[in-house]
Amino acid sequence: MPISDFTRRGFLSAASAAAVSAALPSAAFALNDAQARALIDRAVVDINKVIASGKSLNSMIRDFEKIFAKYADVNIIALSALGPDARSLTNSQRSSYVKAFQGYMSRKYGKRFNEFVGGRIEVQGARAVKSFYEVKATAVLKGQAPFEVNFLVSDKSGQNKFFDMIIEGISLRLSEKAEIGAMLDRRGGDINALISDLKKAG
After folding, report:
1. Domains of the chain: residue spans and CATH
2. Which residue in 62, 64, 79 sits closest to 5, CA to CA?
3. pTM value?
């Protein structure tokens, strides 16, 4: 079973108490439960390799960004986090925003690697939910009660990717929507200022 170092505080401190509400347009399945589970198994293995590498934190963050880009549907997560304002982006802004968001997420969660010690993620299985798959997993920590960490996987982008991670019922994607919305509000709705902020945030 794939193992990844993990802590409850590291993830939950980065997420607000938003309820998960993830639904993609209905479509015929090309993806299946075995493929969805295999994707998450590979992602967990790759993350574990980075954690166990002994590299500097900055190097680990760079590696994590590669993993995030490889396994996550960054476009869907980024544009969903921006909400209705995503519709007004120019092509140039969209490209810059998604790239800045990817870096922001990598720094924000990559910095938690130093805390991911002494635990493991156990993938339990996958099930179809509407037009995507939910891959159920359990985080097992030393000295703490296990808790759920589930991944939502889709092939909507043309590749098998996860577009959300649910930690004890809390949606990472929706939590970031609240964060990005607050950042945009502080800039008076200025998308270019938001992009500039995201390049330094995390």
Report:
1. 8-16+30-198 (3.10.450.710)
2. 64
3. 0.78
Strand pairing of 132-141 and 119-129?
Answer: antiparallel
Residues 3, 121: Cα–Cα separation, whole Å: 5
Q: What value does the mean pLDDT take over residues 100-107?
A: 95
Query: For residues 47 and 128, is the Cβ–Cβ distance under 8 A?
Result: no
Q: Which residue carries 């075995």 as its tokens? A: 34
Which helix H or strand E contains 109, and what residues bound it?
helix 91-110
Mean pLDDT value across residues 154-161: 91
Amino acid in position 108:
K
**CA separation for the pair 69, 169 (Å, rounded):** 24
Distance between CA atoms of 30 and 43, rounded to whole angstroms?
20
**Vertex 153: Cα angle to 35 and 165 (nearest 5):** 130
The tokens of 12 are what? 């939950």
More confident residue, 44 or 20: 44
Average model confidence (pLDDT) for the chain? Answer: 83
Taking the C-alpha atoms of residue 61 and residue 72, their distance in angstroms, rounded to an integer, is: 15
Q: What phi and psi values does residue 136 have, to the nearest 5 degrees?
A: -85, 135
User: Which residues is 144 bridged to in the sheet?
Assistant: none
pLDDT greater than 70 at residue 110 = yes
Total Cβ atoms within 10 A of residue 148: 14
CA dihedral (49, 54, 56, 57) positive or negative: positive
